[in-house]
Structures are given as structure tokens and as C-alpha cells.
Amino acid sequence: MGRKSDRKHSKKNKGGYSSGNDSASLARRILQFLDANFGQEYNAKQIIKQLDIRDALNKGGVEPVLYQLVDAGKVSRNARNYFSSTKDPDFITGTVDFVNPRFAFIIPDDPKAAEGDILIKEADLKQALNGDKVRVMVFPVKGKTGRTEGRVLEILERDRDEFVGRVEISPRFAFVVPDFKKMHKDIFVHRGDLMGAEHNEKVIVKLTEWREDDKNPTGKVIRVLGKAGLHEVEIHSIMAEFGLPFEYPKEADEEANAIPEKISAKEIKARKDFRDVLTFTIDPVDAKDFDDAISYRELENGNLEIGVHIADVTHYVKPKTALEKEAFNRATSVYLVDRTIPMLPERLSNGLCSLRPNEDKLTFACVFEMDRNAKVINHWIGRTIIHSNRRYAYEEAQECIDTQSGDYFQELTLLNELAKKIRKQRFDKGAVNFETVEVKFKLDEKGTPLGLFVKERKDIHKLIEEFMLLANKYVAEFIYRKNQGADTFVYRTHDSPDLDRLETFSGFAKRFGHQMDVTNVQKISAALNKLMDEIQGKPEQNVLEQLAIRSMAKAKYTTEPKGHFGLAFPHYTHFTSPIRRYPDMMVHRLLEHYLEGGKSPEAESWEQKCVHSSEREKRAADAERASIKYKQVEYMSLAEQKDYEGIVSGVTEWGVFVEITETKCEGMIRVQDMDDDYYEFDERNMRLIGTRSKKMITLGDKVLVRVVNTDIDRRTIDLEFAENDRKKSRPRAFN
């Protein structure tokens, strides 16, 4: 039957619906359309409509041409006379990045498997959500957007099935509106599955079902957090949103509580004894987990012995225990605006392992012999026991140096001089000086922000930083040199920046009036440092620092012995914070193994732990940023209603981001609210241009803005340009 039909249409074609040239042109148009809509089926009438063919001759030619393409094997036809492309697709696996309700991108597991990320329209996501692992069919021809497109075939692994959100209850049913910005579907909840939650309360909801024809997933409430807007509720919402634990597992806590405090004579004998050497800790005023201490003594040859002693966590946390399992799972302590979610239980983090003053403590150390110019003459790495003489808060230690008085001020001063010399040596070798702005809040007993301030980095912070960096560097190089990098170890690496991204950043800096030469690869560090020095204390400092960091590669943990661009170290690791970072525990274990003459273990399992730790580090950073953003939004909702000076920190087609200089809070002015003109987005130059007035709003512009709305649920601040010449929503520059 099919062949008769084919012959019938061939005869029609001989009847001459169109000339050979027209037929070839029409065939190309049809084939391009079907290839561009790979996986879709169309009949002849639909193709005529889609291609907007209006003349009778070409309309009549569509069906014969389709049959010619079928005969040629370029198009397939089903029994209902619907046609589709026969191109061979590629199949890849990747992770969903659900950027907005209309489409998502799939980030391929293998970057070589596709030309960039793959765009997937919402209808083709097969109910995949942000972060899910999926299998994708990649269309053989790029879509109208010019990007590679595809369709999700299968969800391989859900990233999460629990979400935090606000309950909206109607008489017959309820929905949970998720806080997570990349969850674009409200979750349907039967009234009987609300667990007593009331309208407008925050809850944790677990997905239970999502049938193929349903627009929204169904879920059930598993935890009621409380009324939206309350401090404790919102912080718990952030913890749940990022999957942070609310309590420590009972079994791990019991293990920690069972560890004896007394240090045996045998253990002391196995270590270098530094208990009679001057030793102190310097930490934030509210810290309780002191994981590093510095010892100081002058040697008979006139040199100095500086010891960096680190809490010996792995002496207490043994492999294959509940403590170890939970430490690995958390992988890092998380510092929210009002609390710490520790990697280790309090008994260890604030007790046994914490290098508290006037107590014997077990440590792992890197001890340096230095001359007065901070040149390292010798170093030793091994286990020690210490007895801290003094616990300093940063402010106390800085005051000792500034006033040249107080406990051990002479030793602190000399250490500070050494640190400055070590720092200079580091920058002379190409290290990059990123001094990021850190926002802190003063909270009342209910968690309401009373004040906001930028944390100041003083000499004492840099002193501790330099000695920790030095210890980390020497530990990494010690292991690398043992066997030229062939031994399995955990490194902290940082790739060189991508020159295209640096070029883009250089263009941004130029808009703020700063020149930066990125043409000489060997001098990129010097160019970045020059810029960082220029912007210190200026309104654009935070904006440019954040843009610079985004243009850099991300530091990560890996067993590959690569270098660290930002620090200009050939090899670097994390050795100095095992109370709060699991990779440091990994380093301690491997270091002990090699010091005792052990052979290199296989790398694969250690690499998997590195990947896990890097992912957990990102989760912690995202949660910390979310808690800061929440408090910034709350602070601006309570702040004085006035015009604020700000800097345009971002420009998109839908709005202008402005960082308020006084509070370092970022808000957005929506293009749709800018009614003084119609603005078009110039993506290449990151600016908006008024079609009538030709007024330009560009990255780096100094403007006056006012707050018009704050939304704690979405953690957003809506701004408008301050009025000027009695016209609403017009940007006004100031000097």
C-alpha cells in the first residue's frame, strides 16, 4: 500500500507542481525545518503553515517533495502521513541547571561530548528539576537560538526530593511555594498531608508523586518550621533549603562523649614536646574551636623557631566510625549569620580538639627555623604536644602590636614583621591579592539586625594567614618531593584564569576608570594586584572584587599535583583547619601514613572524597551567602527611607542591579518599572539604552536609588532610581 502511494505521488510530481530549481529550494527549506525541529512530527499542512508558504504552486509542491525526501532517506514518514527528520542524534548524560521557568541547560558530564551546555525547553525536560542527573538526546541541528538543543529522555538521579517553602491553603487544597529560586513549580499538597501547617507557615515538603500528565508535583509536609518572616524560621528554612543538618546523629555524639580526656604517657612520649615553648592562639572574639596555634622561641644561633601547631583531629576521629562517617558527610563547618553548624560534635570541636589555653593538647605541626629576613632555613613536620599560654582575640593581639604593650607584645611584633616579609616574598613571586569585603551584622536577642558593618582586615589577620599558608605550602611540597608527585595526596589547586574571561573583566574595570593590561600572560598577577590596590576603600571595591573572583577559575580539592595560581605556589594543600574541614583530616591521615613509611594508596577513592568535599564547600558557601542576603533584605526593610548612593553592579535585559554603597546590599530596578523611556539591552557592552532619550545605564555608573520593596521569602530588594526633575524612575548620577 505504501509503495503505491509513493508511486502515486511521484506521478503527481511529474505533472509539474514546480520546476527543478524550485523543488530543490523547497526541499532544502523543508529539510532545514524538520532538522531544526528534530524529534517532532508534522503533516504537509502543518509544514506549509510553519514555513508560511502562500503561493498555490509551492503549496502543491510540498507533499511531492516530502515523498522525494522520504525516498532519499532524509525524512521519515509514519502511517498517518506525518513526517520527521532522520538525522542521527547524540546521547549524553549531564546535570540540569534550571535557569528560569521556560528552559534549562544541561551541563554535560563529559565536556567533550557536546559543544557547550545544551538548551532544553521546559516541555522537553520530562519533569527533571535543577541538579538532577539526566540522559539527554542532543538534536543534530542547532535551534533558532543558535544553541545546541535537546530533550531529556530519562532522569537518572534526583538531586533532591525535599524543598522548603511557604504554605498557601485554599478551601479544597494547598500548595507549597518553594523558596529555592531554581524550583519553578509549586508543590500540590492534599489537605490531609499538611501535618497541621497553617496558611503562610514555612514547611519542608517531600515530593511523593509526579504523574506524567500533571503540571505540578505532589508532596507531603514532613516538618513545620513556623511562621514565615520570623528569624529562627527563616534560618531553619535556609538550612533545610541547602540540606544542612539540624542536629548531630546520636551515635556519633555518643562516640565523641566516650573519648577519654586524659592523654597517656605513651602518647606524650611518641611526640615532640612543646609544652615549655611559648605558644598562643589568635582567633575571632566569638570563636570556640581553636584549631591552630603558633609557638615561638629564639635559637642559640640567632635564628627563630616558629611552630604552626594544628589540632590533631584524626587522633580522636578514627576511620569506619560514626564520627568519621558524619564528618565526611558534612565535610565542612557552615557559618551562618547567627550560628555555626559544625563538622564535628561540640565535645570535639570546642573541647578535646580545641587548642584552649592552659591545657595540654595533641597537635600535628610544621615547625620552621627562620632567619630574621623570614628565610626558611629548615623545617620539620610531625606530631607534637603543646600547652597554650594565651588565647587572643584578633582585636587584643592587634592592640598589643599597636600600643607596644600587653602580654608577649614583643613576640607578636616580631612575628608580624616576619609575616610582612613572607607576604612580600609571595607577591614578588606572582600571588594575587584578593581582599574580599566581608559583611557582618549586629543582631538583637531575637535575631533582628540592629547594625551592619564591613569586617576590617588588619595586620594580625594577615599574620595568621601568612603562617597558615606557609605551613600548607610546605606540607604539600614535602609530600610532592618524596616521589615527584607520584604518591597519592590531597592538593588544593587553582587553575590559571581563562584569558577571554579576563579580557571581559578588564572591560568592566575600564568602565570604572581603571586600566588593566591582560595581554601579557606572565604579568596577569601584577596587573590584578595593581587594580586591587587602586580600588581599596573606593565605592566600586566590592563590585570589582566580586567580578574579578568570578572571572577566575574555582579552587578545588584533587589528587592531581597541580599548582595554585592565586597563591603562586607550585603545590598547596589544606592542613591547618581539621576541626572544620574534612580535606584537612584527609591530609593528616596521608601525612601520618607517609611519615611512618607507608606506600602510596590508590588514588581513585581519595579523588572521590576530594570531589565530595569540593561540592560540600560550595553548598556551605551558598548557604552562608543566602543567610547574609536574608539579613541584608531584613536590614533594608527596617532601614531609614531615604535616597542611597549606589553603583550599577549588573545589567540584564530584565533589570539593573545596584549595590548600595553604604550597606553593601544589592537590589534590582526592573526594566518594566522604568517608565521614563523604553530601554533596550546592549548585551555586548552590558548597558541599557533609552530609545527616545538615548540615555545609557552602564555597569559602574554611580546612581541614587531608593528602596521600594523587600521580599524576605525571595530574598530580594526592589529599588527605583531616585526622582530627578520630578520625573519618576530616572537615573541620577552624583559626584
Automatic annotation (TrEMBL):
Residues 1-22 are annotated as: Disordered. It is found in: Cytoplasm. SMART domains: CSP, RNB, S1. Residues 1-14 have a biased composition (Basic residues). Its EC number is 3.1.13.1. It comes from the Bacteria. One of its GO terms (molecular function) is exoribonuclease II activity. Residues 641-722 form the S1 motif domain. SUPFAM superfamilies: Nucleic acid-binding proteins. Pfam families: CSD2, OB_RNB, RNB, S1. The keyword Hydrolase applies. Keywords: Cytoplasm, Exonuclease, Hydrolase, Nuclease, RNA-binding. It catalyses: Exonucleolytic cleavage in the 3'- to 5'-direction to yield nucleoside 5'-phosphates. It is an enzyme of class 3 (hydrolase). PROSITE patterns: RIBONUCLEASE_II, S1. 3'-5' exoribonuclease that releases 5'-nucleoside monophosphates and is involved in maturation of structured RNAs. HAMAP family: RNase_R. NCBIfam families: 3_prime_RNase, RNase_R. Belongs to the RNR ribonuclease family. RNase R subfamily. This is Ribonuclease R.
